[in-house]
Design a protein that fits this description.
Layout: H1 3-18, H2 25-37, H3 42-50, H4 61-76, H5 83-95, H6 100-109, H7 120-131
Helix pairs in contact: 1-2, 1-3, 1-4, 1-5, 4-5, 5-6, 6-7
Length: 132
Amino acid sequence: MDLEYKLSLISDLIVLAKADDKVTSHEYDFMYRLAERMEISKEQVDHLFENPKPSQPIFSELERITHFHKLLLMMNVDRETHEKEIHVLREFGLKMGIRPGAIDQILVRMNDYEDKLIPAQELISIFQTYYN
């Protein structure tokens, strides 16, 4: 993963976190932990809050699934799901080329799991249903 893609991913997470007009401590923590794993400093993340990078095109199916999953985790990390967040998540998914039916299925199925966290294998299974 190159630096521009990493910064773009963090920017996408920031846009989603801001969708409900507030960023919770859980959302900040999630972003900072993910950024740290990608070797992005706290200062860089703070800069992205003021100057977000545009979304990058994602070409491989696995990268799209992974990116969408991280967005889904961000939406649910504070255990509050707002309509604005769902709208932004849906828009990101459509921009990534994810079929609307897959997005809808994921949004329905997340309610079947504790903390609305769909296991990665279940997410992959949903994508396989819509892409095979």
